TrEMBL record:
The chain crosses the membrane at residues 22-43. It comes from Gigaspora rosea. InterPro entries: Nuo9.5. It comes from the Eukaryota. The keyword Ribonucleoprotein does not apply. The keyword Transmembrane applies. This is NADH-ubiquinone oxidoreductase 9.5 kDa subunit. Keywords: Membrane, Transmembrane, Transmembrane helix. Residues 54-76 are annotated as: Disordered.
Length: 76
């Protein structure tokens, strides 16, 4: 007993892989990219022990003291 809604797409993919390999592989890689973006980070954190580094500072911290204006650089 064959299931037409399963064997039909598989036969189509097999034929596309042999006749139009460029289209088949470009679509395969294009579909695989977003799937990997969603699945790889949780796997990496959960099973491989990856710890995300802390974000770099966005602003430079100002010192907690009064500022001294620069002196000695005046125009003559």
């Amino acid at each position: 007993m064959t299931i037409p809604f399963v064997t039909g797409p598989l036969n189509f993919l097999r034929r596309m892989a042999t006749e139009n390999t460029v289209y088949f592989w470009s679509l395969s890689v294009g579909i695989l990219g977003p799937v990997l973006v969603v699945t790889v980070p949780p796997i990496r954190e959960r099973y491989l022990g990856y710890v995300r580094p802390e974000d770099p500072p966005i602003t430079y911290p100002m010192p907690k003291r009064p500022r001294k204006p620069p002196a000695g650089y005046e125009d003559p």
